[in-house]
Amino acid sequence: MTLDQFRRTLADRAPPADVPAPLAAMWWAAKGDWDKAHAIVMDDGSREAAWVHAYLHRVEGDVDNARYWYRQAARKPVTAPVEHEWEEIAAALL
Question: In which band, very low, low, confident or very high, does the pLDDT at 28 lie, cut at 50, 70 and 90?
Fold first, then answer.
């Protein structure tokens, strides 16, 4: 699936069934459901989930918590607009 195809699924009621949990969280984040996205990655110990978790806390405005999760993901904190980071993460997870 391409990023454009993934974006088109945002018109659906739920994320595609075959996407991994961190990508499903990004889907919910794009739909504006921060709580649902956060619940998906909160107990996932993968680096991908930590990256999404960092992104979510950045969206929330909790920069200190985001920094913690960037460290868990072994990634540098991002300063680009969150819209760009969403695209970067979603493309990487696809």
Answer: very high
CA distances from 66 to 13, 19, 48, 72 (A): 28, 24, 14, 10
pTM for the model stands at 0.95
Question: Does residue 66 belong to any structural domain of this protein?
Answer: yes
The domain that holds 87 is classified in CATH as 1.25.40
Q: Is the dihedral of CA 77, 92, 6, 35 positive or negative?
A: negative
Distances (CA, A) of 92 to 35, 68, 81: 22, 20, 17
Mean of the per-residue pLDDT values of the chain? 97
- Supply the range of the domain harboring residue 57: 20-93
Residue 76: pLDDT band (50, 70, 90) is very high
